[in-house]
Amino acid sequence: MKVPHTYITTNTYNKVIYTGVTSDIVKRVKQHKEKYYKGFSSRYNCDKLVFYREFPTMLEAIAFEKKLKAGNRKNKEKLINEMNPEWKDLSEGWYE
What we know:
The protein is built from 4 helices and 3 strands, in the order ββααβαα. By secondary structure, it is an alpha+beta fold. The chain has a single domain (about 5-85), classed as GIY-YIG endonuclease. GO terms for molecular function: endonuclease activity. It comes from Aequorivita sublithincola (strain DSM 14238 / LMG 21431 / ACAM 643 / 9-3). InterPro entries: GIY-YIG_endonuc (IPR000305), GIY-YIG_endonuc_sf (IPR035901), UPF0213_domain (IPR050190).
């Protein structure tokens, strides 16, 4: 079932943040981990899911992603810290 999500991934040391939107969070995070697409997230090893939010529609997920991308890192860190203060990989155990 397709469920719209906005999500944030980072690298091992939490230095680089990538913000994205997807209709299949499990599949998309796996693609990040496998570096399926060559681009920013694969180049900077952003494969640790640290934040995600579900939305009723894709339009709402995209609007939230745009809002995050237009903001600064501090705002993204605040969201991550509210949901995941230890910045653990929220997808841990999804693929075992």
